[in-house]
Task: structure prediction
Amino acid sequence: MDARLRERSVAWTRRRRLAIASLVLLGSVIACRREPPPPPREPPLDVGQVTGRLAALRFDDAFFRDLEALKGAASKPGADAAAQDAVVRFELVALAAGLASGAEWLAKVTGAVPGDAGRVAAFLKGLADRARDEGLARDLRALAGAYDPSAVADLTGVLTRAEGDTPLAPAIRLVAIRRLLDALRTVAGAPDSERGPLLMQALPGWPNPPTSDPMQTAFPAALRHLSRWLALGEGGEKGLAPWVGKVRDEAAALLGAHAFPLPAVLDPDPRPATPSAGVAGTYSPLVVATLKGDEMRVGLRPVLGWKDGQVSDLAGERVFPGVPAAAGEDLSRVSDARVEQVGARLREVAEAATPIEARAYPQAGTARNADRKDRGRALLWAVEGSQVARRVETALALAERAGFTEARLLQPGSFFRVLPVFFRKVPDVPAVEAPKGARVLVALGPGAAEVYPPAGGPRCKVPGGAWPEGVRVLQQGRAVTGVQVRWEEKAGFKGLLAAALGKWLGEPGRGCTLSPAVPVIVRSRDLPAAMLLDAAAEVLAASGPAFTAIADWFPGLACGEGNPCPAAVPILFALDRVPKPAKVEAAVAVSRPAGFCDKKDVARVMSGRAGAVRACYEMHLQRNPDLAGRLEVRFTIEEDGTVSGLAVTVNDLGQEVAACVLRQISSLKFARPAGGVCVIRWPYRFKPGM
Result:
């Protein structure tokens, strides 16, 4: 009994121990499978607090840690819009400050050195992709295009935003200033005519709307935008103030020593069908003489200067068209008193121009008026097309007598190209040899220009072969004496005068050496100035061997490097004379059948009216005792002997004398021509007592 009880007790004890061990083992397994407790939760990023720290714009390690934290918060799904906007703001601000200063930490923003424009463009495009505002995104992409020469951009919206008061305007302004300064650095020392095109090339997308106002073209507009942006400064982004100061100092160093002349434009519209033949160069006089209405004025071209972050016109109160120099009767005749009057005005304005020219053209040497020493001074001329030739001639003569012997005409519609002309003759310039060769002559009369071969014997004949359509051949009997080109008030010579001259200059004939100086003889002092301007442009546009010595006569005009040399330079109001025909009268080829007129009969009829013609002259001689010169008329004797097609081809006596003579000839009756019509050219020469 006791043994059985002991056995049961031992078995129960074993089972109890086994159960306890199992429970212990199970507890251990359960303990091993229990999840660790979660870590404590991080508090959400306080965007306002981080933004406040970033706004100090210290650009130290703490700044970039905060920026990375902000970018992380903004990238999470459902991120706060304020965080997204703050990332765009501070990345753009960091870019602006880095570009302004060239700081090494810019690489932390864009991943590239400051000079890597392509990387800057890519960074701006990335900002545009993250911007929530569509207008801002569009302007950021346009700004990226300004850093990418291969892009097609339009910066108009960027310029508007940069001058606004939005939160991002200061940073956009500073990025734009950086790019504009880089572009201006490439053009600040360029010639006047090249600054605008070079700026457009260096700054893709810069607005350049069509305009006839030189002040509104690309380069002046760029200086005005820069001035306004610097005045607006850091705006509400106060931390940008040091970097705005850096670009302000950079602008002063880059632009402060320069002066930037602009063109003086009297007529912004080019003459229809007139070739653009002006010559550009590294120097063009600042002093401009203007003939408009009944007045001559003298002034300075607009000249932009930079001081204290502002752009201004250095010409001041003398800016084009300037101050009166002569008017009315003062422009009717050259006299010592009038020369002194005009000369005083010219010298006064030229003296004001001297320091400005030294800034504008520091490398021009003797091209500048102040450094010309023993050669005459240069002067630009702006001439209204409705002026008459005698007033232009008087004004040029007054200026020449006052020492301004080098004349450059402003061609209508051309901003920086000028028409260099000699006045009356090729001047004597020390150490410069006058152009050699025989001279082709151009004679301007009412409604037409005639071109004559030079006096040089048979070697310098009128070129043979076909002439351009519209060029009329002049004949003396069967001999060709020259050609004629019609002039129209609204269309000019249509390039035909240039073509005719080019035929001469390009085909001078064996043994014939032609001079690049082309005398332009003005037969009538009543011709409109527009005709003179057209003729000068056509002479300069004629083809032929390049006149490479032009800079010896007009210092600062450049040949080569994109500026072709003209083949000829006009001598305006030349003192040369048109070759005289062998006979008093000459038949001229006409479109209708040419007939035969008895020369003795023509002379008899013309002589019969000589007294009345002389009376036309003497009537006006009473009012002008110095009246003298030539008058030549051309008319057609019709098949019935009557006169038609009356025209004056040479007129030294004025419109009133010419009109009187034409009235006398219009009523003449000649013998009928045999077989067609006759065209007669009849010259008169008048002087007192003759």
Residues 422-579 form one domain. The longest strand covers residues 629-637. Residues 620 and 656 are 8 Å apart (CA to CA). DSSP finds 20 helices and 18 strands in the chain.
